[in-house]
C-alpha cells in the first residue's frame, strides 16, 4: 500500500532503477500503473530523476503519449524514502515483439512511425527531448501505438549530467550523445530513423549492440537505406537515411518526418503486375466468356430443324387481348415468358430499336402459320396454350454451362477480402493496424511467384487466428475473413 491510497496488485515490469506495478487507486476506483523507484536509488539522486520524468511527462499533453496522474514520496518498511509516479495503465505489447515476428509491411511501419513522430514533434515544441525512443518503449495498444518511458528525458539545451548520460539503448543512441553534447531534438530523430529502419527490415541499421561497440565504431560513408522492402516509396527510404545522418544539423525535424509519412500514406498503392496465378485465373475467365459468346451466336444463327419444343403450360393471360409475338407488353402486365439466350432477346426486340451493328448482322426469318381469331377466355380462368395456337414458336436455347464462370475471378475474391477488412475496421471489429497488416500479408503472398499461394494462405489464416486470440479482431470478423480466404484458395486450386 502506498500512502493509504494505492494498493499494489502485481509487479508487471522491472527496469534499471525502478519497478512498475499494476495498482488500484482506492480514491478514484480505477486501475493504474505505478513506477516505484528502488530504495537504494532514492538515496543517490534517484528521486531527482524520477521527479524530472514525472514533470516532463506531465508537461506533454498528447493522446499517444503516456499520461501521468500523480507523483509522491513515501517511507518504505525499511525506513527509506521511495519516490513513485502514478500513470495510466495501458494494455498491449511492445513493438519489439512485433518486429521479432518479421519485418512489417511498409504501410504498417509508416503508420507507427507517423504516430511516434507526432508525439516527438509535440514534445520538442514544448522543449522536451525523450532521449530513449526504442521499440521497447513503443506499446501497441487497441487505441494505436503509444510512446512510453520519459525516464531519461531532458529539456532542450540542457547539459545532461553523468547520471542521465549512462542510460539509453546503444543501437538507438545518436553519435553526438557519446561526446556529451547538450540535449537536442536531433537525437530523437536519429532514434526514430533507427526505429523505422528496424520495422522495415527486421534489424537495426548498424550491428553494434553494446556501449563499447558503439563507442569504438567508425562510421563513414552515407547512412544505410532499407533494401528489398516490397512497395516502399523512395521518399521513405530517403527520409530514413536523412534521419540517420551523422551530423545532427543534417537530420530533418520530427514534424518533417510526420509530414513525409503522412503524404506517403495518402498516396494510393501502385498496382503491381499480377502473379502467374492471377494471370492464369484471368485467362481462364476470359476464355470462358469468349466460349459462351460464340455458343450463343451459333445458336442464334442455327436454323430450326427440330419440332417446336414449347410444352403446354398454364398461364394467366392479360385482361386485354395478347399482343403478337415480339410486341411490347402493357406496363404492369406479364409479357411473354423470357426464354433465355441471345436468340430470344433478338426476336423480342423491335428491329427499329436495335443498334446499327445488330441490324447489320444476319437475321433469321421465322414463317408463322396464318393468324387465327383468338377468343378471350373467361375472366379469372387460366387459358392453356400449346404449340398449335400460340403463334410463332420460339425454340428455347439451352443455357451455357456456368462451371467456368460460377466462381469470381481471383482479383474479385481478393477484393472481397479487402472489403471485409475495411468493413470490420469501420465497425470496430478489426483494429486498424491489424487490418492493414492482413491486407499487406495477403497481397505479398499472392505476389510472390516463388511460393505456392495455396500454401501461403495457411500463413494468412494463422495470422488471422493469432490476431483473434490477441483480441485484435472479433469472432464475426474472423469467421468472415476465413470464409473469404477459403474462396481464394478454391479459385487458386481450380486455376492451378
UniProtKB/TrEMBL annotation:
<feature type="region of interest" description="Disordered">
    <location>
        <begin position="321"/>
        <end position="404"/>
    </location>
</feature>
<dbReference type="InterPro" id="IPR008266">
    <property type="entry name" value="Tyr_kinase_AS"/>
</dbReference>
<feature type="domain" description="Protein kinase">
    <location>
        <begin position="6"/>
        <end position="265"/>
    </location>
</feature>
<keyword id="KW-0547">Nucleotide-binding</keyword>
<feature type="compositionally biased region" description="Low complexity">
    <location>
        <begin position="323"/>
        <end position="342"/>
    </location>
</feature>
<dbReference type="InterPro" id="IPR000719">
    <property type="entry name" value="Prot_kinase_dom"/>
</dbReference>
<feature type="compositionally biased region" description="Basic and acidic residues">
    <location>
        <begin position="351"/>
        <end position="360"/>
    </location>
</feature>
<keyword id="KW-0418">Kinase</keyword>
<feature type="compositionally biased region" description="Low complexity">
    <location>
        <begin position="390"/>
        <end position="404"/>
    </location>
</feature>
<keyword id="KW-0808">Transferase</keyword>
<dbReference type="Pfam" id="PF00069">
    <property type="entry name" value="Pkinase"/>
</dbReference>
<dbReference type="InterPro" id="IPR011009">
    <property type="entry name" value="Kinase-like_dom_sf"/>
</dbReference>
<keyword id="KW-0067">ATP-binding</keyword>
<dbReference type="GO" id="GO:0004674">
    <property type="term" value="F:protein serine/threonine kinase activity"/>
</dbReference>
<dbReference type="GO" id="GO:0005524">
    <property type="term" value="F:ATP binding"/>
</dbReference>
<feature type="compositionally biased region" description="Low complexity">
    <location>
        <begin position="361"/>
        <end position="377"/>
    </location>
</feature>
<keyword id="KW-0723">Serine/threonine-protein kinase</keyword>
<protein>
    <recommendedName>
        <fullName>non-specific serine/threonine protein kinase</fullName>
        <ecNumber>2.7.11.1</ecNumber>
    </recommendedName>
</protein>
Amino acid at each position: 500500500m502506498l500512502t493509504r491510497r494505492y494498493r499494489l496488485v502485481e509487479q508487471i515490469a522491472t527496469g534499471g532503477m525502478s519497478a512498475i506495478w499494476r495498482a488500484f487507486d482506492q480514491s478514484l476506483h480505477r486501475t493504474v500503473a505505478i513506477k516505484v523507484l528502488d530504495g537504494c536509488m532514492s538515496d543517490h539522486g534517484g528521486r531527482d530523476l524520477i521527479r524530472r520524468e514525472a514533470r516532463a511527462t506531465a508537461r506533454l499533453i498528447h493522446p499517444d503519449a503516456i499520461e501521468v496522474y500523480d507523483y509522491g514520496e513515501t517511507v518504505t518498511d525499511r525506513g527509506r524514502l521511495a519516490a513513485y509516479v502514478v500513470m495510466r495503465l495501458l494494455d498491449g505489447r511492445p513493438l519489439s515483439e512485433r518486429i521479432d515476428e518479421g519485418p512489417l509491411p511498409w504501410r504498417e511501419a509508416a503508420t507507427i512511425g507517423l504516430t511516434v513522430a507526432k508525439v516527438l514533434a509535440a514534445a520538442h515544441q514544448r522543449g522536451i527531448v525523450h532521449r530513449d525512443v526504442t521499440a521497447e518503449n513503443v506499446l501497441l495498444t487497441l487505441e494505436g501505438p503509444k510512446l512510453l518511458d520519459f525516464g531519461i528525458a531532458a529539456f532542450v539545451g540542457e547539459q545532461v549530467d553523468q547520471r542521465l548520460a549512462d542510460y539509453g539503448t546503444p543501437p538507438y543512441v545518436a553519435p553526438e550523445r557519446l561526446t556529451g553534447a547538450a540535449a537536442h531534438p536531433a537525437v530523437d530523430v536519429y532514434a526514430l530513423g533507427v526505429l523505422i529502419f528496424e520495422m522495415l527490415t527486421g534489424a537495426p541499421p548498424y550491428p553494434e549492440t553494446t556501449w563499447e561497440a558503439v563507442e569504438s565504431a567508425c562510421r563513414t560513408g552515407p547512412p544505410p537505406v532499407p533494401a528489398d522492402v516490397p512497395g516502399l516509396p523512395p521518399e521513405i527510404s530517403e527520409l530514413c537515411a536523412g534521419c540517420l545522418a551523422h551530423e545532427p544539423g543534417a537530420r530533418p525535424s520530427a514534424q518533417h518526418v510526420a509530414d513525409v509519412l503522412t503524404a506517403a500514406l495518402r498516396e494510393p498503392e501502385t498496382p503491381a503486375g499480377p502473379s502467374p496465378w492471377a494471370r492464369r485465373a484471368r485467362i481462364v475467365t476470359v476464355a470462358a466468356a469468349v466460349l459462351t459468346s460464340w455458343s450463343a451466336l451459333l445458336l442464334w444463327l442455327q436454323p430450326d430443324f427440330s419440332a417446336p419444343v414449347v410444352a403446354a403450360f398454364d398461364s394467366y393471360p392479360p385482361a386485354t387481348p395478347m399482343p403478337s409475338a415480339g410486341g411490347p407488353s402493357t406496363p404492369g402486365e406479364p409479357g411473354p415468358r423470357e426464354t433465355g439466350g441471345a436468340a430470344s432477346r433478338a426476336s423480342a426486340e423491335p428491329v427499329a430499336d436495335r443498334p446499327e451493328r445488330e441490324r447489320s448482322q444476319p437475321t433469321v426469318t421465322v414463317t408463322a402459320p396464318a393468324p387465327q381469331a383468338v377468343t378471350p377466355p373467361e375472366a379469372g380462368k387460366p387459358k392453356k396454350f400449346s404449340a398449335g395456337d400460340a403463334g410463332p414458336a420460339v425454340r428455347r436455347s439451352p443455357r451455357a454451362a456456368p462451371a467456368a464462370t460460377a466462381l469470381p475471378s481471383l482479383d474479385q475474391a481478393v477484393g472481397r477480402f479487402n472489403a471485409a477488412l475495411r468493413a470490420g475496421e469501420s465497425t470496430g471489429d478489426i483494429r486498424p493496424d491489424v487490418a492493414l497488416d492482413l491486407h499487406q500479408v495477403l497481397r505479398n503472398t499472392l505476389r510472390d511467384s516463388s511460393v505456392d499461394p495455396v500454401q501461403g494462405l495457411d500463413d494468412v489464416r494463422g495470422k488471422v487466428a493469432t490476431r483473434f486470440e490477441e483480441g485484435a479482431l472479433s469472432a464475426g470478423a474472423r469467421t468472415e475473413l476465413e470464409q473469404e480466404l477459403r474462396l481464394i484458395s478454391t479459385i487458386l486450386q481450380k486455376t492451378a
